[in-house]
Design a protein that fits this description.
This protein is α+β, with helices and mostly antiparallel strands and 70 residues long. It has one domain (2-54). It has helices spanning 12-20, 26-31; strands at residues 2-5, 47-50. It comes from Lachnotalea glycerini.
Length: 70
């Protein structure tokens, strides 16, 4: 399992976007770091566990309005 050290001012969705490529994984990231749920905006130096995404979480479907329309 990888870890991630926060930078002051980061939020769960910002970190999920950086490590997983989508802010939609913020809930999964939070579920894997239960003891840190008191943080909404992180101070510098908090270490988060960054597990691999399970297959069920690995695909994020885009809403219709974000799909390419030709």
């Amino acid at each position: 399992m990888n870890t991630y050290t926060t930078i002051q001012g980061q939020t769960w969705d910002m970190i999920a976007l950086e490590v997983y490529g989508s802010e939609f994984y913020a809930g999964y990231l939070m579920s894997q770091n239960i003891k840190l749920l008191d943080y909404f905006i992180f101070p510098e130096g908090i270490i988060l566990n960054i597990p691999e995404l399970p297959d069920s979480e690995a695909t994020v479907e885009q809403p219709d309005w974000r799909s390419d329309v030709s």
